[in-house]
Amino acid sequence: NVVILMNKYELAKKINELEGLTNDEKSELIKLLRSQKKYGLVWEDKPEDAEQRMVNEQPVLVEVPERAILSDDAEAPNHILIEGDNLEALTALSYTHAGKIDVIYIDPPYNTRKKDFKYNDTYVDPEDDYSHSTWLSFMEKRLKIAKKLLAATGVIYIQIDDREYAPLKLLCDSIFMESNCIGPFIQNKLNAKNDTLNIQRNHEYILCYRKMVKYIDDSQTKVAPNILISNKIYKPLIKEDEKFFYLNDSITTRGEGGTLNARPNLGYSFYYHPSTKELLPIVDYDVNMAKTSNDESAIYTSKEELLMKGFVVIRPPKVRGKLGCWTWDFKKATKDKNLLYVKKTKSRYNIHKRTFVPKDKVEQITDETYVYEEDVYSNSKSILEYSTNEGTDSFVEVMGYDTGFNNPKNVRMIEYLMSIIPNKDSIVLDFFAGSGTTLHATMLLNAEDGGHRRCILSNNNENGICEKVTYERNRKVIQGYTTPKGEEVPGLKANNLRYYKTHLLPREQTIRNKRALVAASTDLLCIKNDVYAEQERFAGKKLKPSCARYFDNGKTKMLVIYNELTVNAFAETIYHMEVDGKILIYVFSNTRYAYDDNFEDVLDKVELCALPAAIYDAYRNILPEQEMKFEDPMAESENDTDNEVTSDDSSEQMASSEHDTQLSFDFK
Predict the structure, then answer these.
(1) Within 10 A of 332 (CB to CB), how many other CB atoms are there?
(2) What pairing do the DSSP bridges indicate for beta strands 454-459 and 427-430?
(3) Any idea what the Cα angle at residue 351 is, between residues 381 and 405, rounded to 5°?
(4) Strand spans (E) along 141-202
(5) Orientation angle between helical segments 8-17 and 23-35, nearest 10 degrees
(6) Shortest CA distance to 399 belongs to which of 445, 368, 437?
(7) What is the C-alpha to C-alpha distance for residues 413 and 415, in angstroms, rounded to an integer?
């Protein structure tokens, strides 16, 4: 763990001692050495298990068909959930989606040193002096691939708190360029814990970068659209006693620290009179018992004299089955109770903070509707109205209280971040999917504005999170669910969700490995071209899946040929077909040759691609450097048949291929 930097003066001394150079040449070299200055981050690269696996193996995506959720709506967008290490998933996406992603939103581990960041299946130790290096190494690998995936007009949002904000900003400046930084969005974190020693951390950042300001399209230089489309915020107002105010979040939290056991000094009660609107904070509980018990009747003693006068008692709502607490202490609640507002729901009363606004900022929409117009520097600041608390509320509404998942993101906030991107047909990617909020937000936004956005999620399956949380949440959103309060929420049924797992294949480019890669890459091709409807027949003739597979969804036609001996037969068939548009043809080839000559007479009907060469090309600059294998120079050539053109079982394979051709495709 030592980085050695050579002193420039020592290097200049060595240059002066070099033989074979003139004094002028030495002088110019020293001048060049001293003129080179570098600003930026320096950290030690930390190898990952996933990286080591991909030294000799390469990833593909394999569908789990039994988890597919398919709509009856033929126009339903296809969303994708990938289970596996996101470095492997991103590598596979570098073939299917290079330059195609319009929006990336990620919420990576914050590296808080509180068991939130696992590296190679081990939590980073709080005392690790190289924890920043480990985190930066982890992020750099993923962000470099993310940049390759972004479209020319694409943007990336990265959520983070102040612990890694500064290193992340410098890292992103080096990858995406500082000139492409749109700026940080600021989000409220209303459930932040009070810290009597330091400043309370009550906000998070969302860094935003565009791929590039200027890009080439149709041989013309164009400027990427401005995503900051407004500089005003409108908030609904409540009018009371000729005063206007808007509501902030309630003074409760659903986070782990929001239980009465964890914060026993914050468990007092409010007594509220619905008619007079009088609000009284009162300590009516046993603080010591609150530290261990969750029996409300044993901890609290209601003030009967107030109840008899018509007051109702309001206590903090439960958090995951345990008694909750307030975020304000009793002293503050007593002093600033005029800033609190009681809002009644079907099942309970909630205590909200409120902010009063001047009358000259109030705009009346109807007789009973008022809004507050707030001037801001840019749309980035309006993210403040989306608090972190709301993320837990919407998650619990779908899933219930017993999932154990912490800190889900605010679905309305992510919906807003996507809505300021003009393209309603955009492709959205989240490779730190967590509870799957990004897909939930995508489907909600499509339902609201008629968009056709497609979302790709990637998540590992540690503790079953991908299956039991990410997938299950969005299954319920699509199919409908019942809230913990018994309310029926209809599903967003005009959506398809397909579930994939990462799978690794050998990288060594033998014929056998190449054939295996092509056979396993059909799911990649379906994802790449957004076509999943497989047809048993091509031009009326039944296909044998080991020979070729054909997909046609009415818009896109895709033929995958595994047996290169059938190329002429397919070319002849296509010659006699009426084709609307072009058929995408992926054909196995041991080289980069896509059999262009064989399809020469139908090139106006087809678009050819040789596999697996196209996949190797996509992975070339992303996979780690492959291990060099020692080859015995004395080995006899006949023992190396696996690397020959005809393969290790070439004669048998060729004979079988010819037989398959006759059985599966009869052209007469």
Answers:
(1) 14
(2) parallel
(3) 70
(4) 150-160, 181-188
(5) 170
(6) 437
(7) 5
Mean pLDDT, all residues of the chain: 83
User: What is the C-alpha separation between 184 and 162, in angstroms, rounded?
Assistant: 12
The rounded Cα 512 to chain-centroid distance in angstroms is 35
Place of tokens 């995503």: 227
Between 619 and 199, residue with greater pLDDT: 619
State in Å, rounded, how far the first CA of the chain is from the last one.
70
636-656: b (≥16 Cβ within 10 Å) or e: eeeeeeeeeeebeeeeebeee
Residue 381 is inside which H or E element, if any?
A: none
Two tokens, residue 319: 């958090």
Return d(Cα 441, Cα 455) in angstroms, integer: 10
Which residues have C-beta within 8 Å of that of residue 305, sequence separation ≥ 6? none
What Å distances lie between residue 614 and 134, 330, 440, 565, 593, CA to CA?
A: 33, 66, 33, 20, 11
Distance of CA 67 to CAs 80, 455, 466, 474, 501, Å? 11, 17, 12, 12, 11
- The SS3 call for residue 468 is helix
How far, in whole angstroms, is CA 6 from its chain's centroid? 40
pLDDT at 110: 86
CA-to-CA distance for 539 and 462, rounded, in angstroms?
46
**Nearest Cα to Cα of residue 559 among 598, 605, 600:** 605
User: d(Cα 133, Cα 41) in Å, to the nearest integer?
Assistant: 10
Bridge partners of residue 341, in order along the sequence: 352
Shortest CA distance to 458 belongs to which of 431, 438, 435, 481?
Answer: 431
Reported confidence tier of residue 165, pLDDT bands at 50, 70, 90:
very high
Strand stretches in 511-601, DSSP E: 534-535, 537-538, 541-542, 548-552, 557-561, 583-588
Question: Residue 609's beta-bridge partner residues?
Answer: 586
Residue 665, token pair as written in the block: 């495709």
Distance in angstroms (rounded) separating the CA atoms of residues 127 and 635? 52
Q: Are 158 and 172 in contact (CB under 8 A)?
A: yes
User: 105: which 2 tokens?
Assistant: 């939103």
Q: The sheet that has 150-160: what strands, in order across it?
A: 57-63, 496-506, 78-83, 454-459, 427-430, 101-106, 150-160, 203-210, 181-188
The two three-digit tokens of residue 569, written as one number: 């037969």
The answer to whether 215 and 221 have CB atoms below 8 angstroms apart is: yes
Shortest CA distance to 153 belongs to which of 107, 104, 186? Answer: 104
Q: Can you spell out the DSSP letters for 305-343?
A: HHHHTT-EEE-PPPBTTB-B-BSS-HHHHHHTGGGEEEE
Query: Whole-angstrom Cα distance, residue 1 to residue 44?
Result: 7
Cβ 532 vs Cβ 553: under 8 Å:
yes
User: Which of 360-364, 408-412, 598-602 has the lowest average pLDDT?
Assistant: 360-364
Tell me how far apart the alpha carbons of residues 116 and 462 are, in angstroms, rounded to a whole number.
13
State the amino acid at position 314 in one-letter form: I
- Flag whether pLDDT at 346 surpasses 80: no
Task: For residue 446, give the H/E element and its range.
Answer: helix 437-449
Among residues 232, 231, 240, the alpha carbon closest in space to that of 370 is found at 240
